[in-house]
Amino acid sequence: MKRLISFLMMVIACTATFAQVERPKLVVGFVVDQMRWDYLYYYNDQFGEGGFKRLLREGFSCENTMINYVPTVTAIGHSCIYTGSVPGLNGIAGNDFMIAGKKMYCVSDSTVHGVGSSSREGKMSPRNLLATGIGDMLKIATDYKAKVFGVALKDRAAILPAGHAADAAYWWDTSAGHFISSSYYMDKLPEWVNRFNKTVRVKPGTDIKCSPEGVTKTFQMAKAVLDNEQLGQDDVTDMLAISISSTDIIGHAYGTRGAENKAAYMRTDAELADFLAYLDQKVGKGNYLFFLSADHGGMHNANVMKEHKIPADGYAAWNEIKSLNEAFRTKYGIETVALMANANRIYLDHAAIAKAGLQLDAVKKEAADFLARNPKVHMVVDYANAVNTSLPQLIRERIVNGWNPERSGDLFVVPKPHHVDGVVTPEYRGTSHGVWNPYDSHIPMVFMGWKVPHGQTSTPTRIVDIAPTVCEMLHIQMPNACIGDAVNEIVNPK
């Protein structure tokens, strides 16, 4: 009898041991909008010790991480980081795209309303995201006990990383002058959010997004979520997705160099250092898994490049379709053959083409030939035939990955290198992004914290490798449209 009892106790003990899966208390995803990979080193001498330098000093850096699709824009970047997928599968084809001939903002949702605001900035949700994300999989793996939140100034940067099953996403409404959410997540703001908003509120209409102040307020909100929702305070792993949006808005306005961009990154570094120290205190050093990445990079200002004899210019597809529409109007009587040009994608009016008795393939070829006459264009690709174009395999792959047949349009324009998406006038100071080239596609990817070894690798990695790496470390299933691979040096350190 004693032997039987001892045996049963051993079985129970073993069962309990195997049932307990080791996980961190908290996962923190940190995405810096428009952060080129080389900013880790360009500003390195000016960074403090506790922010970006700490990530490199204590964490593991994948130095050769590329975005494996085009266009390289914000909504897609945030979606792909957290889904491990690409626009062709997850459905987020751009910041803006078209569905059935109608323009759609990536997180727009007319079925919901703002919470904390009555403006249209609150009518947002993840409904256009067709794939699950890290947060969704964490929810499923913990029987929906995990708490998942997204925080950013931009709505899309808070909503898409948080995923479908998130407890909440919070973003900044300029018209209200404080953080808001939508009825997708809740009926009213929690009382702690109302109290917090009183401490950060600015005059309605005041734009804080294009200033370092926006960085500070984002981190303040992240801390408030951490404290008030008690993230990382029990045995169930929680997730907090944070995105810094001001860096992108400042970059667009002032370029990748200069006092404005420097100020944004110095503030981000200082606030990051403070936040990491806060995590150490609240959750415990070694108890959280932290990763840094970016949704895209940005091109150096074209005018500055030209001043130093480096070829550069601007190409605006949205400007070119005016001439395209006029040519087809004159030749075929079609009022508007191209409905929209966005991020070098051309959306043709299929109904108008059919009504004129023309074949879509023939129109696509003629439109592509017309647009390709521009000396700033390398090639115009028919999305449906992208795999057969005479482009390097890397570019073909990125075009194919970025094409969602229902949302991405018909043609993709490949500009020549160092052509920003826009019109470059003599007074132009800013920048943009969206193309396959390294200045837009080479991004940081650094992991730090729970069970992460120190080191770095130059082995090629991709933006879609972040999600499976996190999921494998958590021992949960990767998102349902994931095509990435876990980084072996991180998940299986020697």
Whole-number tally of structural domains: 2
| Main β-sheet description | 10 strands, mixed
CA radius of gyration is 24 Å
Shape: globular
What's a quick, concise take on this entry?
This protein is of the alpha/beta class. It has 19 helices and 21 strands. Strands 6-9-8-7-10-1-11-19-2-20 form a ten-stranded mixed beta sheet, with helices on both faces. Strands 13-14-16-15 form a four-stranded antiparallel beta sheet, covered by helices on one side. A three-stranded mixed beta sheet has the order 18-3-21.
Give the topology, please.
Blueprint: H1 2-19, E1 26-32, H2 39-42, H3 52-58, E2 60-62, E3 65-66, H4 74-83, H5 87-90, E4 96-99, E5 102-105, E6 114-115, H6 134-141, E7 148-151, H7 155-162, E8 168-173, E9 178-182, H8 191-200, H9 212-228, E10 238-244, H10 246-254, H11 259-284, E11 288-293, H12 302-307, E12 313-315, H13 317-332, E13 338-342, E14 345-348, H14 350-355, H15 360-372, E15 377-382, H16 393-401, E16 411-415, E17 419-421, H17 438-441, E18 442-443, E19 445-449, E20 455-457, E21 461-462, H18 466-474, H19 488-491
Parallel strand pairs: 1-10, 1-11, 2-20, 3-21, 7-8, 7-10, 12-17
Antiparallel strand pairs: 2-19, 3-18, 4-5, 6-9, 8-9, 11-19, 13-14, 14-16, 15-16
Helix pairs in contact: 4-7, 8-9, 9-11, 10-11
